[in-house]
Fold these 4 entries.
Entry 1:
Amino acid sequence: MQEAQQVVVIGGGVVGLASAWWLLEAGYRVTLLERAPTVASAASYRNGGQLSYRYVSPLADVGVPKKAMQWLFERDGPLRFRPEADIRQWRWMTQFLSNCNAAANARTTAKLLQLGELSRESLAQLELTLPLSEFNWRNAGKLVVYRSEEAFKAALDKPETDENRAILYGADTARVEPALAELAPQLAGGIFNAGEAVADCYAFCLALEKRIYAHPRFERCMHTAARTIFVEHGKVAAIETDAGWISADHYVLAAGIQSRDLAATANLDLPMYPLKGYSLTAPIRPEHVAPNISITDFERKTLYARIGKELRIAAMVDMVGEDTRIDRRRIASLTRLARESMPKAADYNQAEAWAGLRPATPNSAPIIGATPYPNLWLNVGHGPLGFTFACGSASLLATLMRGKESPFALDCLAYKH
């Protein structure tokens, strides 16, 4: 019997761990490289927790450039920008602006909906091995609320929205979700989808890590940083790490924004930029009225997800390079927004702050699959939807690596030479 091929998966976040699992199940031997002492300690640690398979609207859209200019001057605006002496920032912005049109948005949205459905199916498959209860999964449903009539009407008019959505007007939002009682008078309406879920991404990663380590084809996890991709005779020969060189039959880049610099050592240009996001995790006491439904405040670009006995509030896009420091002014803004919108939802005085870098592409579509090197593969660029797409993109990657046909055309998901 032919020995199973070996794969090195670089990245121990939710996408890397999911990639490792699906490749193990596909028959590969897997070694995992993670530079941090523990898995899921970066963008996967305290993200929004929403599994939004149908709400996958790309950031690039008609009118976004104009809105972005307005947000920059708002005290609690969702966007902050710090110019860098880095051509990658400006190139990303140029490419992003080229995607801010209805046609590009529609094409990307259609593809992300296909990936979202594959992700839903893939998580259901994983449930046979990993019970949903281990990471506080709930079929909470998702309610996107709109403050302005203009934004609400635009959402209702979108042709690609789910036919099974429920449309709510004004005060109806509070009848569906009592936690919105104070905010409802300010709302034009909302759109509810019963098929969306919430879960604890970090708990998911830890539970999946246990299954990976126990898998008979798993070889080891090396907690060391990958530095250089060494190419020889048209393929990857080895990876240089802080612990020395490591070789395998195949290599998978799934290390979030760090994948960008690593790919560059092999002359691959990954069009990604780190969009820094923030979250608060506040305890829910018996006296609080926390939302049971997952809430997205469309104009404020803020989401609320009840995860176990805590409320996760996530928001904001800071274009400040690879700066992971927590900006206390941004946390103060996020706390202020949460108190104004849902003052009785949680104990905001005891909230824990977090910041992470979301590896985003200009069109918001992840890059999955082959590269010009026959044994180097990509699973990167998921932006704020890494948790949502992790299982689907891992399943898709395993399918492509085995030489099987993709369940749908890759289009904008494929690496462009």
Note: The radius of gyration is 21 Å.
Entry 2:
Amino acid sequence: MNSVRSLPERTDTIVIGGGTAGCVIAARLAAAGRTVLVLEAGPDYGPLADGDWPAELLDAAELPTTHDWGYQGSGAAGQPLAYDRARVIGGCSAHNGCSQSVGWAGDYDAWAAAGCPGWGAADLAPLFTAAAELLRFRRYGEEEIQPFQREFIRACRQSGIPALDDLDDLGASQSVGCAPVNVRDLTRINTAFGYLDAQRARPNLTVAADALVDRIHFLDGAVEAVTVIRHGRTSRVGAREVVLAAGAYGSPEVLLRSGVGPAAHLADLGIDLVSDRPGVGANLHDHPAALLEFAGTAELRRDLAEFSGGGWLPQEQSVVKLRSPVSDGPYDLHVYPWVEPDPAQEYGWRCILPVSQLRPRSRGTVRLASRAPGVRAVVDPRFFSDAAGADLESVRHGLRWTTENVLPRMDRHLGTPLHKPVPPDDEGMNDWIRRHHSHYWHPAGTCAMGAPDDPTTVVDHQGRVVGVTGLRIADASVFPDIPRATPALPTVVVAERIAAFMTATTT
């Protein structure tokens, strides 16, 4: 692999974004013989074996935010929310909580049925397996489950939920257990380690770090070049094909600055129209989460100290899958508890039990605030805005179930509530959810895949952007509907699938 100070004038394939998906598709294309230039806006710390990575990005017990893009927005009641995204090689796979899940087969089968052939669960299952191997998934041994997580699993079991480690089973239903994790030797294995490192020695792969993409240029509707800002210098790099993998916020940003998107929005910003695609930046959805928070008890402090012995302590491990009355499948909720140090609390710990809706009906937008690439887009997921109120009903169910079944069985570790009381009635609870919710850090859908004759479609089933040639997208933005999963692994599978389409001899 080449790491360059100056950019080439032209290359075969440019991958915009070296994140969760970008590392995967760049590695697969380079291994297939393509000449690939990766443009990553953040730093590249090189192979894991070189030992140059910051400690917080390696420590699988932490959720670092040191390399954040800085997206900001608001919740359903106007409360400020940070929409963290990682600006570093490996992307959010270098920041995530390491719990991995595949979701439900029916969600992927619905993609295939809606005009995306090759995306059914049977098509994707081998890719999930391959990704798990390369990202070195493992399961926690019984002795590795820390006391707070053990108590949560016990409480769920006593409430009638079976204890099964089946978050990697496409056919799974309600259960509680610990997910597989991309952790080896206490290190978070991101996609740069799992995919890119094995290809770095190839002369046909170049990674250009600290390279912010302004826009893609087209000639007669075909990709011609990319404008990049790097070390204060603006360059233009020609390419035969571009793969956009900048994420659910970044990919629509780049498309919009490039003139691909809703004509009226582009006109408002004075951007010349290349292709009128109303779906660009639309269909934004995330997993909303209502957080129950408590001070940790003296017993929690004692139990955690005894477990860790002052060493490694995973803060987040277990997940329960629940089915609400509005679910369109076997489950539609995650409760995924964690503990975090909090010096403001008497015993030094805070406990969080988030209830997250996995199949939100609400849809929002990503819209440019400026043509300038250094100005972040306006992110508005419009949480809990669905007309039928299904998202609120689902979260209400999860809050009630958790309050009635889990909290009373965890009083050894859960102390004083740190949130306002949750009203028992539907309307009061709805208001509480709107005012106190956050999210699961799972944005998706802003460049949705679908049938090419659907005006809301942005990419076809092979990731090709409709209305132009030579441009594909391969990241979580192409999800038509987010699967009921933590989407890091499904995002890897998206990149695997589109790379397979690109390197196949037939279509």
Note: Residues 1-71+85-138+181-286+441-507 form a domain with the FAD/NAD(P)-binding domain fold (CATH 3.50.50.60).
Entry 3:
Amino acid sequence: MTSLPPQPLSPLDGRYKASVQPLGEYLSEAGLNRARVQVEVEWLIYLTDHSMFGSSPLEAAQKESLRALYTEFSQADIDWLAEKEAVTRHDVKAVEYLVRHRLDELGLASIAELTHIACTSEDINNLSYALTVSLAVREVWLPAYRGVIAELTRQAQAFRADAMLSRTHGQPATPTTMGRELAVTAWRLRRIETQIEGTEYLGKFSGATGTFAAHVAADPEASWTTISQEFVESLGLTWNPLTTQIESHDWQAELYNRVSHANRVLHNLATDIWTYISIGYFRQIPVAGATGSSTMPHKINPIRFENAEANLELSSALLDSLAATLVTSRLQRDLTDSTTQRNIGVGLGHSLLALDNLARGLREIDLDRDALAYDLDHNWEVLAEAIQTVIRAEVVAGRSSIDDPYAMLKDLTRGKRIGRDDLVAFVEKLDIGDAAKARLVALTPATYVGLADELVDRLPQA
């Protein structure tokens, strides 16, 4: 048997590449290296702007040419770094050499020794990860997440008045509306969205053990904490003043826990929609040319929701692991985070793939109102709750002397299937006021939905 040509090992880089490719812009090795170049270049510019170590400010054109090292980062740079790292066996050192090499080409060799000065590799790495993760979340993951919320919100409005039988513990229960149930999930997802939007992306820039020791040795008069804070904040990050060699990764743990929480709510959505399809509340819209089963021509399988379910589980498993392990580093530094952080894109990638499937799946279903009406009309016993509650209110108001209304309705309905005529006959004989009796006689499972329709208005519009 001949060997295959080189193949991607992860399905995210193979079968599902098109769905997750936008994350590669930031969370690939190339994306990380581009951010590293950005940090190195911006540090050079900061130092020269402030005439540190006897340097002079660069001209605007020189700054522009320097920034082009990361704004026009190319395949040639990716290849150059790969070749250099094969020699250095150190990824950040390869980036430093790239910047030095480009300085020579730009006629800026005079500031070459400022490259990476007073920096440990983790000063560059932690800022680079903060930059790439923040961009990946804000530019790619959150828009996809909001897309699912927007579709849920649209359907919540569209189906807000469509009564359906609830199922608590899987059994027929007090009716609701389909729109109200979708609004519940959208509300949950919006809360988590706000939390994720509020993530602080922290950065440190304080040397080999976080003490600014080399900085002070090189320039004892400089206000290094102020310089560090200004530089970190100039990158759009939040400064962390107290760290070891590494930034403590607490912000990452917080973010990944929140995304994992979102995953689990989305997982609940996927399983609920799957169940509604299974019992006929939603019908799937056929997609031209698609095959549901290799042997059963009639089938349309809910594969979008099944795919989402599986990918959400994978994503949360990895993000939970990242959140649990990144917050621990032996003494002042160990390298366990080096490998784990390279899998951030995998964790977010499986979540993004799930969001893509959920968005598509939600657009490929439609409500079967006949199925909803059939179920409601065959479960009149769910009105037992309403009847016993009205009786109790009538007793309190002095308009009834019925003893233990709950037990009375339990004897009438528990484990039994009864219809409208049975309930009307029962209500007509009750010792309650005429107004209450009229309300109960007029009540149907389809109208016993309380404020479900109105509650949808509590959901902010997309």
Note: The two ends are 55 Å apart (CA to CA).
Entry 4:
Amino acid sequence: MTDIINELSGIDADFIALRERRADAVANAQTSFEALLEPENPGDFSYAERYTVAAFVTGISQSGEAAKFYLDLLADESDDALVAAVREAIAAGTTAGPFHQGEFTIFAPESDLGARLAAALDFAHLLTFHPRDADTSAVGHLDAAGWSSDDIVSLAQLISFLAFQQRVVHGLRVLAGSSVSTVSTDKEPSNAAGSIVKTVTNTGWKPGQNTLTPEVVKPGKFVNHSLGWQPWVAPMEKADFTEAHLDSLIKPERIDMPYFRLLARDPAALRARTVTDLDIFYNTEGGLGRAERELAATVASRYNGCEYCASVHQARAKEEGGDADAIHRLLDEGIQADLGSAQWSAIRDAAVALTSTPFAFNDTHVAKLREVGLDDLSIIDVINSSSFFNWANRLMLTLGEPDVPKRFR
């Protein structure tokens, strides 16, 4: 099957060869597409629903070629009425982000979308532009619309994967010098679609019957020590793990971690995602240093507001020889902090741009990365590392919440 990222980015053979230096990441990004968009057994989360979500997410994000690709897949799988409803939803929901504590768009369940898909697009809009604003009520909203625990995990994985895919595609296009359409980075949601949509601050959603509401002590700030994490959707019980579920963990000890037992509800997606992660961050055959990859992960997490991911990856950046004082300033002061070196500043600026829209990332960022000594493989590592944490952060922020361990309270 054609590699979707290569196809959408339009890169030539030389850049494809550079991508292939991270062969597991390339192969498993494609496998993630297949697991989430075209699984052998889609179950209750139908192909038409999956293509609807993908077309909507890429459409509202102003990823023109990707939106057309997914709309074409949807048109092959559904009727004209659903395609028209999705186009209307895209027109209503297009904006930029991510934002924190702001308004976002929700869709009327009585529209041609129906209650189940309307709830999915509500969740998709939240994850795409407001992941930091998610709470147990967002999961409850899906629960109330008939989404099972397994399908909520698959839906969150799909939306989060698309955040990664779009950023890699755009980053590669810029790196390769392809012309990139000018898009708005400050567009507000539109009410042009009339009764299909409303823009809200307070949704009125509530935790559902199957929503977990754990008691946690939230960190309240970005910290330089480890954190726990508690899910809002029930993880799988260890006794229910099959060989496929165990295989999806890659590392057997992860069965003791609620996060991985939760994502194992979609084992094919979890396995592909994990192998992508490992190759992006641990394949050190040329390219960017480990500390710098972890820096990009920490920057994306700091920008997106994911205290848990930032706590993990700031520690790894220091373990790999990164400047601890600079990392602490990043945690304390935010993405504008003085990182103490031109190279780290250039990586930070690129990671912020890719995370923010991602169309803020442009040839100026590529030029600065080259000026501080990064070759094209290293820049691909910056793109991959930053983009991956737009996948990871969204899962952490919308399926559960961080918890301060007792020893740090």
Note: The first strand starts at residue 104 and ends at 107.
